[in-house]
From TrEMBL, chain A:
Gene Ontology molecular functions: 4 iron, 4 sulfur cluster binding; iron ion binding; NADH dehydrogenase (quinone) (non-electrogenic) activity; quinone binding
Subunit structure as annotated in this protein's UniProt entry: NDH-1 is composed of 14 different subunits. Subunits NuoA, H, J, K, L, M, N constitute the membrane sector of the complex.
Similarity comment: Belongs to the complex I 23 kDa subunit family.
EC number: 7.1.1.-
Gene: nuoI
Catalytic activity: a quinone + NADH + 5 H(+)(in) = a quinol + NAD(+) + 4 H(+)(out)
Top-level taxon in the UniProt lineage: Bacteria
Protein name: NADH-quinone oxidoreductase subunit I
First-listed, main subcellular location of the protein, grouped into a coarse class: membrane
Cellular compartment(s): Cell membrane
Any Gene Ontology CC annotation: plasma membrane
Function, in words: NDH-1 shuttles electrons from NADH, via FMN and iron-sulfur (Fe-S) centers, to quinones in the respiratory chain. The immediate electron acceptor for the enzyme in this species is believed to be ubiquinone. Couples the redox reaction to proton translocation (for every two electrons transferred, four hydrogen ions are translocated across the cytoplasmic membrane), and thus conserves the redox energy in a proton gradient.
TrEMBL record, chain B:
HAMAP family from the UniProt entry: NDH1_NuoH
UniProt entry keywords in alphabetical sequence: Cell membrane, Membrane, NAD, Quinone, Translocase, Transmembrane, Transmembrane helix, Ubiquinone
Protein name: NADH-quinone oxidoreductase subunit H
GO cellular component terms, A-Z: plasma membrane
Catalytic reactions on record: a quinone + NADH + 5 H(+)(in) = a quinol + NAD(+) + 4 H(+)(out)
Subunit description: NDH-1 is composed of 14 different subunits. Subunits NuoA, H, J, K, L, M, N constitute the membrane sector of the complex.
Similarity comment: Belongs to the complex I subunit 1 family.
Role: NDH-1 shuttles electrons from NADH, via FMN and iron-sulfur (Fe-S) centers, to quinones in the respiratory chain. The immediate electron acceptor for the enzyme in this species is believed to be ubiquinone. Couples the redox reaction to proton translocation (for every two electrons transferred, four hydrogen ions are translocated across the cytoplasmic membrane), and thus conserves the redox energy in a proton gradient. This subunit may bind ubiquinone.
Signal peptide residues on this chain, from the entry's feature table: none
């Protein structure tokens, strides 16, 4: 068949010549290549001290956002939990009481909001599903821990710091 | 037997033993460092300045790990395997001449533990004993993979010992002596009677065969089939843990050190270095410089072992056997014939 891309390469399987059969020239060539690599630049990034730069739309740990007045945006509609393909998100809704208008933006809010970070696949579908722009995956890496229960992040870890005024 | 002689030998044995262990320990670090450098990484660098304490950390880890003896194994042989491997690895260095005689006052100290007149045979015997540790350990584990590794080790060592011995015969035809000190003394300086005095220049083919065979004898890549981790799950030491595993790994590095020392002594002039007799230095200084040069050669060979490891992939088992039986043994026999003709012609002239 004629190659359309003109990049087709036919390999010829010639019997090896004597020089190729004794392998020593090719071993010497290989040794030279590996020796050259000893003096090349190291690619290592010394992680805890140094971090690899990540792209702008990189997805890290989740954070629950506040609006410009410092009120939680999340209304516990459950769309993120519904969108989540890994079933990592769960929440309990509650009604806003009188006097809590400064804390929650709308009448309904998430009393409990938990993400199981061991289930989460960091796909970002919760971010896309959220109608209130309340959840974003803009945090750092997920750090290691010892116990499974410590990977279930509640509101204490997820909600943004309150506004400083 | 005077007391001073005994003390001298005990000190020498202790020093050599400690140096051997130290070099073996730091070979593990060097291996990981060189692997890192060749692959564009830095290797271990957290323990101490640029990872200098890594061998201590590894050793400590090995000591504190749980020692598991499989229920279905033969416990005595299971323990005997690594002991034997470590023992045979560490007694090999006894006949290697580390330098010329050191003269202190009117005492002549020989920098060699035992100058026996069958030095090469001794080394050869020890090397062939080395496989028993692996075989016994692999068999006693009562595990298919371990047994496979042990069988591979045994057949590989037996096959490559033949080619190694034959390449040594050609060397012995040139040197006319089995004593390692005698062989080292014959290679004095660098240039003698219009030709290089080091044996590698009159036995290049023999050296090549010896080099390839010592890779196989030390179970190093490209011939590390007994412990190939991706086909045999680490081969003969699959079931080992804790310090018994450490003993197996350590004996491999000691073997590498001894093999490097033997190669330097047999083919690269041992403690001799160029212009050693023309610098006008006192004898003791030349001796100490000779020891330094011998260790430089040994370190080069250890580096070469590691350099090869990260360059050439592992051989397939049939390729290994083909290389051993169909290439190296005929080549070494041809080398003997050529050496014989060369010696005869040289004598006639």
């Amino acid at each position: 068949m004629e190659s359309l891309s003109n990049r087709k390469k036919v390999l010829e399987q010639k019997p090896m010549t004597f020089g190729e059969k004794i392998y020593l020239p090719s071993i010497a060539k290989g040794l030279a290549i590996t020796f050259k690599h000893i003096f090349k630049k190291r690619e290592t990034i010394f992680y805890p001290e140094q971090e690899r730069p990540v792209s702008e739309n990189w997805r890290g740990l989740h954070s629950l956002k506040r609006d410009e007045q410092g009120r939680e945006r999340c209304t516990a509609c459950g769309l993120c939990a519904l969108a989540c393909p890994a079933e990592a998100i769960t929440m309990t809704a509650a009604e806003r009481k009188k006097g809590e208008e400064g804390l929650y933006r709308e009448e309904k809010y998430a009393a409990v909001y938990e993400i199981n970070m061991l289930r989460c696949i960091f796909c970002g579908l919760c971010e896309e599903a959220c109608p209130k722009e309340a959840i974003y995956l803009d945090g750092p890496f997920l750090e290691a821990d010892y116990l499974r229960k410590d990977f279930i992040f509640g509101k204490d870890k997820l909600v943004e710091e309150p506004l400083k005024s | 037997m005077e007391l001073a002689f005994v003390i001298e030998k005990v000190v020498l044995v202790t020093v050599i033993f400690l140096i051997t262990l130290g070099i073996a320990a730091y070979s593990t670090l060097a291996e990981r460092k060189i692997a890192g450098f060749i692959q564009g990484r830095v290797g271990p660098h957290r323990a101490g300045p640029s990872g200098m304490f890594q061998p201590l950390a590894d050793g400590g880890k090995m000591f504190f790990k749980e020692e598991i003896i499989p229920a279905e194994s033969n416990p005595w042989l299971f323990i005997a395997g690594p002991c034997l491997a470590l023992l045979t690895a560490s007694i090999g260095s006894a006949v290697i001449p580390w330098g010329q005689d050191l003269v202190i006052g009117d005492r002549v100290i020989q920098l060699q533990v035992a100058d026996i007149n069958v030095g090469i045979l001794y080394i050869f015997g020890i090397v062939s004993l080395g496989v028993y540790g692996i075989m016994i350990g692999g068999w006693a584990s009562n595990n298919k993979y371990s047994l496979m590794g042990a069988i591979r080790a045994a057949s590989q060592n037996i096959s490559y010992e033949i080619a190694m011995g034959l390449s040594l015969i050609a060397l012995l035809m040139v040197t006319q002596t089995l004593s390692l000190r005698g062989i080292a003394e014959q290679q004095a300086g660098f240039w003698q009677n219009g030709w290089f005095s080091w044996n590698v220049f009159c036995q290049p083919l023999g050296f090549l065969i010896f080099l390839v065979c010592s890779f196989a004898e030390c179970n190093r890549t490209p011939f590390d089939l007994p412990e190939s981790e991706n086909e045999l799950v680490a081969g003969y030491h699959t079931e080992y843990s804790g310090f018994k595993l450490g003993a197996f790994l350590f004996s491999e590095y000691i073997n590498m050190f001894v093999a490097s020392a033997v190669m330097s002594t047999l083919y690269f002039g041992g403690y001799n270095f160029p212009f050693m007799n023309h610098l006008g230095l006192s004898d003791n200084v030349v001796t100490i410089l000779g020891v330094v040069f011998l260790f430089a050669k040994i370190f080069f060979f250890i580096f070469f072992f590691m350099w090869i490891r990260w360059t050439i992939p592992r051989f397939r088992y049939d390729q290994l056997m083909n290389l051993g039986w169909k290439v190296l043994i005929p080549l070494s026999i041809a080398n003997i014939v050529l050496t014989g003709i060369w010696i005869t012609v040289k004598d006639l002239m």
